Amino acid sequence: MNWYVVYTKPKWEKKVAEKLNEIDIECYCPLITQIKQWSDRKKIEVPLFNSYVFVKLTDLDRNSVFQVAGVVRYLFWLGKPAIVRNEEILTIKQSLSNNNISNISVVPYKKGDKVKLETGVFSSQNAIVQEVTNTYCIVVLESLGCILKIKYT
After folding, report:
1. What pLDDT, in 10s, does the model give residues 105-114?
2. Which of 4, 52, 44 is nearest to 26 (CA)?
C-alpha cells in the first residue's frame, strides 16, 4: 500500500479526511494550530497543506476516494499519481508532535530563493529561483553560467 496525495476542494480538507475515515480509507490530514480572533474562539486548527489529504491504499483501490464529496483528483508527478514515502509521512507526524514548534507554514518558492538541486543531472548544484509558474520553474545555475527551466508534468 502506498501513500497518495488527494487534491480537495478549497477548505474541504478536514471534511474529506473525516469522510474517508468513515468509509475505512486510511488517511492523514496534517493540522496546525493558528491563533485567530473569533467571537467564540481564539485558536483554530487548519491544514498544513492547503487542499491536500494523504491517503494510504492499494493501486487497485485508488478510485474509491471519489465516493467522497470534496475530492477533486490525485496529485500527479511525472505523469503518474504522486507517491509519498511512509518515512515522509512519519517525519511530518513527528515534526508536528514536537511541542517546541510554535509556528509552521508551507510557502512556495519565490523569485530570489536560493535552492540546492537534489536530483537529476544538476544534483548538488546551488541555484537561484528566477521565476515560478503553475507549469514550470526557472532557476539560475551561477556556477555553471546557465539557466535551467524545469517543467512540471
Report:
1. 666 778 888 8
2. 4
